[in-house]
Design a protein that fits this description.
The chain is mainly β and 191 residues long. The chain is built from 1 helix and 16 strands.
């Protein structure tokens, strides 16, 4: 574990803060008039997802968290739990509370491979690809009329998630979704 000085605590770094793993969401080093520089950061707890704001001063250091990555299969979500199994060792199953991973799980089909971040050999959270291709399960028919502004409609994907798409998308089409923003990017395959 590397020791990081205040100016090395940068975005996407995972650090130990109060003996808990946190991901750095943003960092901004600034200096106000005659004061010493400060690194203003936003940290997200890897387990709970809670975001906190912390200022690190010039004399402070933190250790980089000892985080490993493991490949796992997404199995299912039931009764408030999202279940996963380690790839290659399906007997090693574990679950996360649904509210902690819902923003990621909503874009996953069963048996999708994901990266699981582990801290001290305990699964903490999952990382999914930035873009995923999903089939459209249900889409209302396109209605002629107000298409001056581009026209969109709300469709349901095979995972149960809903997303705004252009009017030309039909059930059975495969579309690409940006998982960071939850927005439609393009149609990959026409039904």
């Amino acid at each position: 574990m590397a020791v990081l000085s205040y100016n090395e605590i940068l975005q996407k770094t995972i650090i130990d803060y109060n003996n808990e793993p946190y991901e750095v969401l943003s960092s901004h080093i600034f200096r106000m008039q005659m004061r010493k520089p400060v690194n203003q950061t936003k940290l997200r707890h890897l387990v709970s997802g809670k975001v906190i704001e912390i200022s690190f001063h010039q004399n402070e250091t933190v250790t980089e968290a000892d985080v490993e990555t493991m490949q796992a299969l997404y199995l299912y979500t039931n009764k408030g739990q999202s279940w996963f199994a380690e790839e290659g060792n399906l007997k090693n199953r574990f679950a996360f509370p649904e509210e902690a991973v819902h923003d990621k799980v909503q874009w996953l089909m069963p048996n999708s491979v994901v990266d699981v971040l582990t801290y001290e050999e305990t699964p903490m959270t999952i990382k999914i690809p930035v873009k995923v291709d999903l089939p459209v399960k249900d889409a209302p028919p396109a209605v002629k009329g107000n298409t001056v502004s581009g026209g969109t409609k709300l469709v349901e994907l095979a995972t149960g998630a809903t997303v705004d798409v252009p009017l030309f998308i039909n059930p059975g089409d495969i579309i690409r979704i940006n998982t960071d923003t939850g927005l439609y990017t393009e149609r990959v395959e026409k039904a």
